[in-house]
Structures are given as structure tokens and as C-alpha cells.
Amino acid sequence: MAESTYQFNVVMTCSGCSGAIDRVLKKTEGVTSHDISLEKQEVLVKATIPYDDVLAKIKKTGKEVKGGKIVD
Fold it and tell me: Which residues form the HMA domain (predicted)?
């Protein structure tokens, strides 16, 4: 599968929240890179796995995902 970029709007209140997402994404096979912005409440992920798989991984952290989209 080709690499795609996904953007998620995730409710994060502290560095612990963003850290939990960071740890999960680092361990996820198929995620090539990710950028977490606590200020913007946004997670950008480059991956070769489907959008729904990445969404499920982020949701597993217990954080609320307010929305998301496939950027490219």
C-alpha cells in the first residue's frame, strides 16, 4: 500500500496525553512518521496502513478523537 497522510483532531489536555499517543504510534507497524501538536489538538500520521487502523490505535489510548481526514 502507498504511503498516506492522515490528520486527526484529538482531545489532549497534557503532555501525558500526547505521550500516550506517541508511544502507541511508535509501536504501530506501518506508521512511518507522526507529529503530535498539543496546542492544535492535532495528530498528523504518515502511514502505509489504512486510515481506520490508525484511528483504532489512537482510540485505544482512551483519547477522544473529534474528527479526522485523509490529507493525501
Answer: 3-66
